[in-house]
Design goal:
single chain, 10 helices
Length: 207
């Protein structure tokens, strides 16, 4: 129940507080403590949880600047808030956190993927070529880090499909189709890829 969950949250926080007071250089403890507040912020959207999470992530990367997990998680936190706020400062912080994560761990598919997705989401409303290029480049890096990652290919296909809706260019249609095909090679039962590839093709037929 909620009372028990709240008690566990407070108890776990007390344990992490004790660890970080005794060993302030323990970046993993700061990161895990931050994750607790991040998860609660995701569920409840209370500003104090957001502030608590980012403060602890910052303590983690101060303790260990190459802590790619903390940079990655802080990037997720700010990207999630940017989806609500559309504030430039939230986007810029998410951008910087993902940059730091891949600088620390260049083969981290998840960080490249989330960084690509950040620009892809902005491109959906901005229709800016620089957002398309930034997303495309980062999806390339994500695929290079893990070529079997279905989500990379699927979301990369969506990027091209979205641009095709405004450009009508055959290269964008082919770019989307090729990536849907690759997503389905990784997961043949993926309903979303089949559906969206069909939708893309039917849209071209109607034009």
């Amino acid at each position: 129940d909620k009372t028990g969950a709240d008690a566990d949250f407070l108890a776990a926080g007390g344990h992490y507080q004790a660890v970080t007071e005794a060993w302030p250089e323990d970046s993993a403890a700061w990161n895990n403590w931050a994750l607790m507040f991040s998860k609660r912020w995701d569920a409840e959207r209370a500003e104090e949880d957001f502030v608590a999470a980012q403060d602890r992530y910052r303590r983690a990367v101060e303790a260990m600047p190459e802590d790619y997990k903390s940079w990655f998680n802080m990037g997720l936190l700010f990207a999630s808030r940017w989806l609500d706020s559309r504030a430039d400062e939230d986007f810029a912080t998410a951008d910087e956190c993902n940059r730091k994560a891949v600088e620390a761990k260049p083969d981290m598919n998840d960080a490249w993927f989330n960084w690509a997705l950040l620009f892809a989401r902005r491109m959906e409303t901005s229709h800016a070529e620089e957002d398309f290029v930034a997303a495309d480049q980062r999806f390339q890096k994500a695929a290079a880090a893990n070529s079997a990652d279905h989500d990379t290919w699927y979301n990369w296909a969506l990027l091209f499909a979205h641009r095709w809706e405004t450009s009508g260019e055959e290269d964008d249609f082919i770019g989307a189709s090729d990536r849907y095909e690759r997503a389905l090679a990784e997961n043949p039962d993926d309903h979303k890829s089949w559906f969206n590839w069909g939708h893309l093709t039917s849209r071209r037929w109607r034009k």
